[in-house]
Predict the 3D structure of the following.
Amino acid sequence: MKADAIRIAVDVGGTFTDLVAYDPGTERLRTVKVLTDTEDRSRGVLRALAQSEHPPAEIGELLHGTTAGTNAVIERTAPRTAVITTAGFRDVLELMRGDRPMPVYDTAWRKPEPLVPRDLRFEVAERVDAEGGMVRPLDEDGLARLLRSDAFDGVEAVAICFLHSFMNDAHELRAAEIVAAERPDVAVSISSRVNPEVREYERVCTTVLDAMLKPLMGSYLRELEQRVRAEDFAVDPLVMFANAGVAPIAVAEDRPIFTLHSGPAGGVVGAGLVGQLLGRENLITADMGGTSFDVCAIVGGRPRFRSEGQIEWGLPFRIPVVDVTTIGAGGGSEAWIDAGGLLRIGPSSAGADPGPVAYGLGGTTPTITDAFVVLGYLGDEPIAGGAVQLDREAAVAAIEGLGEQLGESAEFVADAILQIAMAGMAAEIRKHSVERGDDPREFSLFSFGGAGSMLAGALARLLEMPEVIVPPHAGVFSAFGMLGADLRFDVQRTYHGDVERLDPADLERVFVAAETEAAAAFEGEEEVGFRRRAALRYVGQRHEIEVDLDPGEITPEILGAARAEFDAGHLREYGHHRPGDRVEIRALAVSAVRGRGRPALASEGDRAPAEARTGSREVRLIGSAERVELDVYDRAALRAGAELAGPAILSSDDATVVVYPGQVASVDRSGALLLREAA
Amino acid sequence: MAGAPELDGTLLAVLANRFEAIVREMTNTLFRTGRSAVLNMARDFSCSIVSADDQLLAAAEGLQVHVLGAGLQTASMRELHPDLARGDAFLHNDPYLGNTHTADFTLLVPVFHAGEHVFTACAKAHQADCGNAAPSTYMPYAADLYEEGGLNFPCVQIQRDYRDIDDIVRMCRRRIRVADMWYGDYLAMVGAGRIGERRIGETIERYGAATIKAFVERWLDYSEQRAQAALRELPTCELRGSSPHDPMPGHPDGIPVQVGLSIDGEEGRVVVDLTDNVDCLDNGLNLSRCSAMAGSVIGIFNCLDPDLPHNAGSFRRIEVRIRQGSAIGGLEFPHSASVATTNLSNRLINSVQAAVAAVGDGHGLAEGAGAMGVGYSVFSGNDRRNGSPYVNQMVIGNNGGPASATADGWVTYAMPDCAKTVYIDSVEVLEQRYPLRIRSLRLLPDSGGAGRHRGGPAGEMVYGPVADPLQAFYFADFAHNPPQGVRGGAPGGAARAAKIEADGSAVPRPAIGDVELVPGEWVLGVESGGGGYGDPLERDPELVLDDLLEGWISAAAARDVYGVEWVGTVEDDSLEVVGEATKTRRERLREGLEKK
């Protein structure tokens, strides 16, 4: 790729397709937002590309993220998928982990439907023991008969998951061959390849999801590739993964599980990028959209990961994912009054359809967005890039309805809605950080998403966080983030050994094999680097802490350092540790990573604050009893270095930022806004 | 007090959220750092925060039977230790002083502000071993506390100035069979208690002690109003319920559990009368006061809006009457309450929730299954791989949940007293850790009680040793008296056990008992299915065919019990209801029933 070639990222969401085109020569971004073509998503991508007005020959890179697979799985519209498993165990998917979410007294609660219904879960005689020894041979004829039977008609994908296959994959490999011979059109995933780790429920879920996504993502991605070629783009598209990396289309087709829940990854990578431009290594990202509030930590410049995601409660998939946690507090979260006369927010949400009352699209229940409108945070100008015109009177009437029940004014109730919602957000940030041993006071709050930056200043104050960062281009931020993603592929392995007693050479062999597999994802790519991690715990514990291993061949010294890091992590997270106790390794992970050029950003404004003022608005700020007149500024027009004392509103067409009294906002040369308490 | 500080509904909600978050943080600490499988896999523990005057304030995610009696334990702490100080911690497992049963160790951490005791942070955890006479934490046959043989700590000080009192730790380490594991679990409990202490302190610093005091009062009052409003939706009536425990040695006719409910729909109050029950038994099944109160309250809460706050405020609307000396809550020393959290406790909960169903359609619940059979057995033997003996309880059984007026019973439910807040073990992990093999683990057709809403199905499992002999103990109630349906719903499937001999023949065994196996022999166990709710002939025929397609019911049951006629086959997924024929068949079945 030429150094000055245009880099493009396209994020295909459920409602909008966002595109950013980055010109490294000028450090400027051009953005495009179009409605997602839900009939034909790749056609929508090509349409957005056409609107970017860059000729294909200028484009040196095309990145692509999509939630299509995730949505199909959540909405259960994915292709008909079957499971083939060890005789005696077809109900593993039904039993799940056995537990349930709260509240415990909800006896009408229903478990999520298993990923595959019982009539599509088939048993085959075979058995391998816990050491990998063959106990009962695979019944090849029985499997072939099953595959030829009517029951298999209409099946588009199959997951093969036998007990202990991560210790001995022979039966799974042979079963996959038989499926290929009997049903050549059926996509196959085997658990010993997709997720070779102990615990059958998690492994079968992961394998089923991989299989299910194959027909779906495969056809979509092939189509996209063909269309891109037909338009004379001289680039191979890269696909966004949930591990915060990107990978070639062929890898995504082969292992589509990695695209699941890739949605939040772009924004988290983008936060890391902007943090780097600002010299900030520790960030807590807060993304408040229409239905949810997502939190993730970036520590030492790297997003935090966890080794398992879930598509909804009880349905896990074991791949490394950026460690985002979510609560149902978005702009659309509904306010209501319970039987004890207490105001409550959520968990039900009006989402984007029917949406808040103020949207005038049929919503009748007041929401957090309506509270913003009533208090004046949102004015008369349209929001969401001009897509929505707000109806203030309707919002006031709806919240007055709650006020009548409580004997309070609409403004009082609107303020209470924001305070309760903010308490929930603060609790989530606190929980997210303290559970991982972090102190939020040592982090900058990185705020993006349509609704979040109106409260970010107050939220940071509540949590005693020193600073708020609001990036530019907040409305297409996930697409922007993709520009900074590394090429990355992950391999996880089960491994069991006492840190002090295991044979370093044996561990080294397992790591090298995993690295070879991971590197194969980038065939032809040079400069692939590896990161090794190990999941450690005290003997007898069930929960591991993952630590990074120092680079180089495994030695007792490297293991000793890992153990010390584990002890320190245990003390940090849980308040105690036992350096004298035995520690064991339970799992290994390898990331193959190849860095890519990271975009810089330049502020595009050129005006002093006085010149960027566009008017004023009366706002009743959260927690105060009366309205004050706030100056409103055009955020995009402010030049780098500009400073503004609160209270003030900085407005742009995709996000509104509120600077609270006693706080100062400054514009960085990247265009990011920084909010701090005045000295 | 010089006028309560200002505390509006907003701050009330904010602080309630804050205290629940603290309990969740305590819970997370204990879960992730505990050493024994019973903590870190089965999650058999709970955390809570109790006010200085012994009112349960917050218990996010706690096991119901564990947390509801926390106030009884803090009351005994204040009485026995009037000189409480910052840095203290107390170990409490005494069922005569408010604990559930001996195997649940509770760590009580009094929290101070400005020299005043303001809250107590509590962490209660079922121990892997509690020093009982036999290597099991459940001693159903123990005639009294002496035969249980476990360590009893009647609220004993175990920390002073944030340091262990080593005498107590040494006693535990000497007597408890898995000393290192125990100490790891103990540290996890201390970690949870101290995190609770720290976070409560931060919250008081931030909002002020007077505001927090006012919050406690207001929050409990609010919770009481919620419970009152919920109970006012019920009519004033007198109800009776009973659910007899299966026969066991010494009790050939089983053990009856009787409850009377007086619902006052005008006042929004309910009395649960447990006085009409047998005297304390000479075995380990007696219910401690804590277990009996918890069981009563769980049964009521299961029938009310689940969004109610579950704390001392909402308990005020539920009065539990207990007769001193009775097996149901009137525990007298030295009678044993070793299995007070399961057997009679499950029967008590079922009696209450099924009695409420008599109020009318839409109310109450069927009985939930709660067999502690082969899928929950304590298994032991020698592991030749490391030459050492092993003993553990597996948690892999599946009891079916009760059907309600709005939903079918859950597929996995565990038992009424914890209603599925515990995890099940992984087959692969069990086989890695122990020299045993699990041959199958499945759900059984026709095991969920039929009804307009169907009870959850029962699980069946088969396991045996791979190298050396293995012994298994199990104690399955619900074999003779399976979980009953309500309002026309049928009972769930009964628990059972069998030994599969080397020649493949299955020989039935008592569901309460034990078995010794050599390689080639297997034990088969079936837990029980949940009761159904409402007349099966009123079940949506489409749901009946879904059940048939997925194998939850047999074709015979679909026709004869549910009265559905269809065309098509399961094999090619072509089932379709024949409406007219179904209507006719259902009418004939109804008439047939009337004739009976």
About this structure: The longest strand of chain B covers residues 116-126.
